[in-house]
Amino acid sequence: MSVHADPKPLETPIPGGETGSTVTVEPMITGRFRSPAVLQSSPDGKVGNLKVLRSVGPENPAIPIPAFLIRHPKAGNILVDTGLHPSIASDPRENLGRLGAWASQPELEAGMDVPARLRGSGISPSAIRLVLLTHLHLDHASAIADFPDSTFIVSAAEWKDATSGVLPIFRAYRRQQYDYAFDFRTVDFDDERVSSYSTFGRTLDLFGDGSVRLASTPGHTTGHMSVIVRLGDRDMVIAGDALPREEQLEQEADLPGRMQDEHNYRRSLQEIRLFHNQYPNAVITPGHDPAFYENAPAKYE
To answer: What domains are there in the chain, each with its CATH number?
Structure first.
């Protein structure tokens, strides 16, 4: 299945940057999956599809599905990932497909989806200028359809992998979620504009003011990326699924049971760990850690 979008390469810096700019970030939990725990942390290493399918069930712990609202003083409102689509509250199969809905056991209360949360804060979804997609797995790309006026930014490697191959659902992709002729822009982390930032080997300064950087953190998926932002007095790394649980910042912690490329995953995780060691006051958000989000503030400034 091909998709209707014809993505264009991202041109940077995007207008709106201003020297010295800092941002605020508001984490939003927009539903949960009852996903097999082995996907997040596995003492036995990588697991296959059959083991995952055998582990599906309502007894699995509920893990949060976060999205993040970044407010930039000049560039406007930016979203990182989209959370779960509102339709999942009534019929998960419509958005996730039968297999995806069965395997993930989703939970979404009415009014907790990202568009509803934005409206509750006085922000129309049409006011979201950019949507930064850490990757295109079905729990991160679920609500793309609700932001037709936004520009979506995804890595070129991720777009290629997510729109090619057979049986994408077994790689956690649901192409119907991003099969729209929207404004998709792709990031090539081999581009000459890419440079290192601290412990991260390949990053792109989105606005040219250092306030928002995209960081290549492949491994969970072929083209996974994280987002590094500058708060008032420290940095924040929205790590996505390069760091499923906060405990994995420790060297001895178990790795996830599912990785597209274990070598690249370990390298990306090491970049995040080194950043944490060098800047212990920086905020590093894990992808799906219940304890972290239960204690997270409503806004990081």
So the answer is: 21-294 (3.60.15.10)
